[in-house]
Structures are given as C-alpha cells and as structure tokens.
Design a protein that fits this description.
By secondary structure, the protein is an alpha+beta fold. It folds into 3 domains: 155 residues, no CATH class; 75 residues, no CATH class; 162 residues, no CATH class. The protein is built from 18 helices and 9 strands. The strands form 3 sheets. A 4-stranded antiparallel beta sheet has the order 4-3-5-6, covered by helices on one side. Strands 7-8-9 form a 3-stranded antiparallel beta sheet. It has a two-stranded antiparallel sheet with strand order 1-2. Strand 5 and strand 6 form a beta hairpin. Helix 13 packs antiparallel against helix 14. The longest helix has 23 residues. It is globular and about 75 Å long.
C-alpha cells in the first residue's frame, strides 16, 4: 500500500477539486485572469504547478506527505480522464501501460504549459514542475501494483457511469496518426463542416452512438470513410493505417518543419511589435531607436529562447500537433518583443575563457538598471565569472517585477 494518511489525501483532494486554490483542478490547468470582460479575453497568470504548491504552503501543508498526495491525485485524475476519452478497455487490459502513459503525459503537459505561457519565468517555475514530476514518477515506479488496482477501480466506476470500452479519443488518435502518415493537415469534414481532429472525432463518435451513418473526410480527400457503427469506423481507420503509403505520400522532416515554424513565429511577432525596413530587421518599439548592434543582440537572444523550446516543439510535431508547436513558439516570440526591457537592453553573453562570459554594452547597462531596481549595488563591468553572474541574477530575481524577471530569464539562458 501507499503509506499516505486518509485525512491527508482527503485534504489535498478537497483543495484541488474544491477550487480552494484558485480554480477547479488547479495544478493541471493554468490559472487565468480576465483581461477584458467586455471582449471576453483572459490571460494566463500563473502555472498550475506553482499555484498548487504555493497553495499547500499557504495552508501549512507543504510536507512530503502532502506533496505525494498531490502527485497521486494528478496521476489518478489523468487515468480517469484518459478512460473517459479512450474508453475503459485500455485500463482493463493494459493498466501498467496506462500509468506510464499518464506519467509521461503529465510531464509533457506541465512543461508545454511552462514554455507556452511562461517562457520568461521558466527558471523560477520549473522547480515547481520538477517537484511534481519527480513525485509522480516515484509513485509509478515504486507502487505499480497498487496503482494498477486503482486503475481497475476507476474502470469499474466509469463503466457504471456509462463510459464505453472504446471512446472518441481512440478515433482522434487514429486520425492524428493518419495525418502524420499521409503528411496532411489535420482538418476533417463531418457533415460538410471542417473541424480539428479532436472535435471531428467527438462529433463522429456521438453520431455513431446514436445509430446514424456518418462520413468523415480530410482536406483534398486523401481520407474518406463512411461508417454505420463505432466498430466499423475503428476497423476502417485501422486498415488505412496498415496500408503501405503510395509514392505521392511523404513525411515531412521534423527539423525542416521546426525551422519553418521558427521563422513564422518571428515574423508573426514582428508584424505586431516591430517596424521592418526593406532588407533589414529593425526593432522600433516604444520609442527605442534603431541601433544595428542592439537589433543583432535582440535577435540572438530571441534565437536562444526559441531554441530552448525546440525539444518540446519537436515532440509536438512528431505527434501531429503542429498548431500547438506554432502557438508555443509564437508565445515566446511575443513575450520577447513585448518586453520593453529586453528590447532596449537585449541580454547577450559570449564565452570569454574557462568559466567566464563577456556581456555586451547594452547588457551591462541593462544589468545595472535591473540591480538598481532591486536595490542591489553592483559594479558595471563587461567580463564576469559565470557562477558569480548567476548568483547575482538569483539574488535580484525575487526583488523585481515580472518584466524584469523576463529579462533575467533570457540572460540566464545566454549564460548557461
């Protein structure tokens, strides 16, 4: 058995599910705030992992047992969500695989949220993510047999509530695999209406459950299937996946797609925040004058931040989620362009011998401004010991606003 007291587990479950930490399912979801009620626009304000751990601390419950209870809650909640989407068969027949899938899914979800919504706060927020990921993996690796029994109980509960053995998520997954195999855009037509893959799968599944005949087709007709039952659709999609691709079918290279998305993300942000002169990149933002060296330093820093997200973006591309990868890179680019401190004093550091870095003049000026705002005295200089500079940045991080933290996060990436 997992040695967690029932009162501790119940307390943590109530905090997460009862909305006592800022919202239902806090931890899994990003906390948002209303930017404009009139326009119905909200913005991400805090990463869920940070929110739940800070909430536990506020309640005086940041001990190891409470952290393990939170990790257990998220792991089993993931199992429940997957069953509701994919059906109970996966839990009944392969509980161990389902637990491993959820362990990986939780880590991917938290890290994607981190780089999509809070890339300039990554240094601070990542330790909260690591705290939860480490404990989720510890539970999965050390209490597998007990957790597999829990998966069985969750399957029973879902079947009692009418969840089928195969759910709409299976069709969504098969359609996504077809997109990757055929190199097509994951937009499918159901009753003549174009839908993204997940929505198309839910629509088709719902119609088939009601006994209706349904046709689903892809853009340009590479996929076209008619079915009268969930089983028939499953069989036909599986058959398509097993077919050998013809000569006209090609799978795009992930690196090439990554480079294209990176260029598009930069251009998308430039169109919103920068003036671009013919034949040259010119940052002209909030009255900051054009200086070629400053522009070059800014784009070097932007490239470092985008490259830091490449592993996550590449994984999204490999799983057919190109729109999510593009959104991730756009978010980073926009946060760079919209941070006036980064634009005016682009963080730039170059190696200067063993364990040392050299800062650009703009970075030296920016560092002086950052330290001044934090009330920390520092002698402006170009060359630093890498460790000394990182200690200074850590010292001032908690004393400055979020804009300044964004500048510090970029410089840390450059130095590391």
């Amino acid at each position: 058995m997992i040695n967690l007291r029932e009162d501790v587990v119940a307390f943590v479950d109530d905090l997460i599910d009862g909305g006592k930490c800022g919202g239902h399912d806090v931890g899994l979801e990003v906390l948002t705030g209303v930017l404009s009620e009139e326009l119905g626009v909200s913005v991400a304000v805090e990463h869920g992992a940070k929110a739940i751990l800070e909430c536990l601390e506020d309640w005086g419950a940041l001990g190891e047992e409470y952290l393990m209870a939170a990790a257990l809650h998220f792991l089993l909640d993931c199992v429940d969500r997957v069953m509701k989407a994919f059906g109970t068969q996966v839990g009944r027949e392969r509980p161990g695989e389902l637990l491993r899938y959820c362990t990986d899914l939780l880590e991917s979800r938290w890290r994607v949220q981190l780089y999509r919504y809070f890339p300039l706060e990554a240094a601070e927020v990542e330790r909260y993510v690591d705290a939860l990921v480490g404990r989720v993996r510890f539970l999965a690796e050390n209490y597998g047999r007990v957790l597999e029994e829990c998966v069985g109980y969750i399957a029973e509960e879902n079947e009692a509530k009418g969840v089928g053995r195969v759910g709409h998520g299976v069709y969504s997954q098969l359609l996504s695999q077809l997109c990757r195999k055929l190199g097509i855009k994951c937009i499918f037509y159901v009753d003549g209406r174009p839908l993204p893959v997940a929505a198309a799968a839910r629509k088709v599944y719902s119609k088939l459950e009601r006994g209706e005949e349904v046709e689903i087709s892809s853009t340009y007709g590479k996929v076209r299937v008619t079915a009268r039952s969930p089983g028939e659709l499953l069989e036909k999609l599986t058959h398509l996946l097993k077919e050998e691709p013809g000569e006209a079918v090609r799978v795009e290279d992930v690196d090439a797609r990554w480079r294209d998305l990176k260029r598009r993300a930069i251009r998308w942000a430039e169109d919103r925040f920068a003036s671009i002169s013919p034949g040259a990149k010119v940052v002209a933002y909030r009255g900051v004058p054009y200086v070629p060296e400053r522009v070059a330093a800014f784009y070097s820093a932007l490239d470092v931040m985008l490259e830091s997200a490449k592993p996550t973006a590449a994984e999204l591309l490999r799983s057919g989620r190109e729109s999510e990868a593009e959104e991730l890179l756009r978010g980073i680019a926009v946060r760079m362009f919209s941070n006036s401190l980064i634009v005016e004093f682009p963080p730039f550091a170059a190696p200067a011998g063993e364990g040392r870095v050299a800062l650009s003049p703009e970075t030296v000026a920016g560092l002086a401004k950052v330290c001044e705002s934090a009330g920390v005295r520092v002698e402006p200089r170009v060359e630093w010991s890498r460790d000394e500079l990182l200690r200074l940045l850590d010292e001032v991080y908690g004393k400055v606003d979020w804009v300044t933290r964004g500048w510090i996060d970029v410089l840390k990436k450059m130095v590391q």
